[in-house]
Each structure stands twice: as C-alpha cells, then as structure tokens.
Design goal:
CATH architecture: 2-Layer Sandwich
Structural class: alpha+beta
Radius of gyration: 10 Å
Number of strands: 4
Largest sheet: 2 strands, antiparallel
Shape: globular
Order of helices and strands: EHEEHE
CATH topology: Alpha-Beta Plaits
Bound molecules: iron/sulfur cluster
Number of domains: 1
Length: 62
C-alpha cells in the first residue's frame, strides 16, 4: 500500500503529519509522503490520517 497526497488539494493543516509522522511530513506548507510503501504496522495510522484530512487530499492505494 502507498499513500498519495494531492498537493493541489492540500491546505497545509498539518493534521496528517501529526497523526502519522512516519508516513507524512510537512514541506513548504504541503504534506509529502515519506518512502514508497507503507509498512503494515503503520497502515492503520496512515489510513486514519487520510480519513481525517479535511479536504480528502490523501489517497491510500496499493
Ligand atoms: S491533513 Fe490533508 S490538508 Fe492537512 S496537511 Fe495533510 S494532506 Fe494537507
């Protein structure tokens, strides 16, 4: 599984990075995804961040 952030949609609130810092980081007021794939132990947290995003900018697919 991997996470994809739509940088155009992201409003830079920082919520995803707060919820799952292992997968999401803020860079220039946008969230970026660290690494290519989400390890199993981080999947729940990464999904929680995606569902918490106020503008639904995060997709998890894989
Ligand atoms: S939660 Fe959504 S809007 Fe907020 S920083 Fe993350 S991707 Fe951007």
């Amino acid at each position: 599984m991997k996470a994809i952030v739509d940088a155009d949609a992201c409003v830079g609130c920082g919520l995803c990075a707060n919820i799952c810092a292992e997968v999401y980081q803020m860079q220039d007021d946008k969230a970026i995804v660290i690494g290519n794939s989400i390890t199993d132990d981080l999947l729940e947290s990464a999904k929680e961040a995606a569902t918490s995003c106020p503008v639904e900018a995060i997709k998890i697919e894989g």
